[in-house]
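Methyltransferase domain-containing protein, Lentibacillus halodurans. Tokens?
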Amino acid sequence: MEGDVTDAGLPEKLGQFDCLVSFETIEHVAEEERFLANVYNLLKSDGTLVLSTPFGKGRGKPCGSPFHVHQLTADEFRDLFPAYAAKTFYVQRGGLIKPVNGQDEHYPLGIAVCRK
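Tokens:
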């Protein structure tokens, strides 16, 4: 299947799902709010979203990849999911994935597991 993650009709076309996984997609999408609204609407009432993204300097700041619209800061990333009832955040470096523990260490990737 091929589609546009910002297509407002996507939830109507595809229906709803128990779980959606989006690994390193959002940094490529200029219409981030539309993408997140679609993801939310594509989930069933108790559905789960697993979404990851590389961290960077933040919205509106240049990043090292010509294919990325931007790379969010860790704080910007955590602020993306206010509509979800439960959220757990993880960080990743190489093969290591661990829960966010409040320490000020730098990890290049963030992962959110959110329940609607």
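The chain has a mean pLDDT of 93.
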